[in-house]
Amino acid sequence: MSSTDTGRSPGTVQTDDPRSLAVRIRGLRKSFGTLDVLRGIDLDVRYGEVVCIIGPSGSGKSTLLRCTNLLETPSAGRIEVLGVEITDADVDIDAVRRHIGMVFQQFNLFPHLSVLDNLTIAQRRVLKRSRQEATRIAQENLARVGLSEKSQAYPNQLSGGQQQRAAIARALSMNPRLMLFDEPTSALDPELVGEVLTVMRNLAAEGMTMLVVTHEMAFAREVADRVVFMDGGVVVEDGPPSEVLTSPRQERTREFLHRVLDPTHLTRDELTGEEATTDSVAS
User: Fold this and answer.
1) Distance of CA 163 to the CA centre of its chain
2) Residue 275 burial (CB < 10 Å; 0-12/13-18/19+)?
């Protein structure tokens, strides 16, 4: 059923209800030329839920996240976000995006603007807030991420971790109901990762609905309500962290976690990319 079938204009988001879905994806496919990146994805995310997507590079994780905000146009399938079918040709995607915050691998801060101005510019231009209101909200969110003293600094005066926290504060200043994180710590020095994950952990504790592409297994284990393992453009396994990360059902999941969690104990066959499992030998 499209948004027009429900009587809502295409872009009118529904109110939060923990019994309903913030994200509903069915049969999602995405191809780039002859390359099939997503091959029939079904995924649900409930309001207040934290879902972490893990998997090897090239498995389609980031493409899935970008399709959820229509930064990539699906080749086929249906996506509903906050009660709106964004794959509807008549959707007002800008109206939906006002309720979605996205944090990328790179920080994407405007280098010529101070941190405070980076946080207020979209509030004023998109949400039409006054300078005074936008500044108040920006300062509140800088405090949430521990950057109150950096409001007048410029991005090149911040560490990578501080820049990413500023990017999170910028997204929060738009009062999103859904946050999308695309490997937000992948570009950071290892010692700076913790400060970003702490902010994300706090958001989860506050009840923010979050869809997170990550390689941080400890974060997924501690914070996620569900972990989704992707490989080859499909969902291989989906369940609570205690199941997917500790007792996965699928051999491919077990293989991936072995490589990620115990990388110094790979066999010679694993180093050469060959499979040593009985299943692969039989095939």
Assistant:
1) 17
2) middle
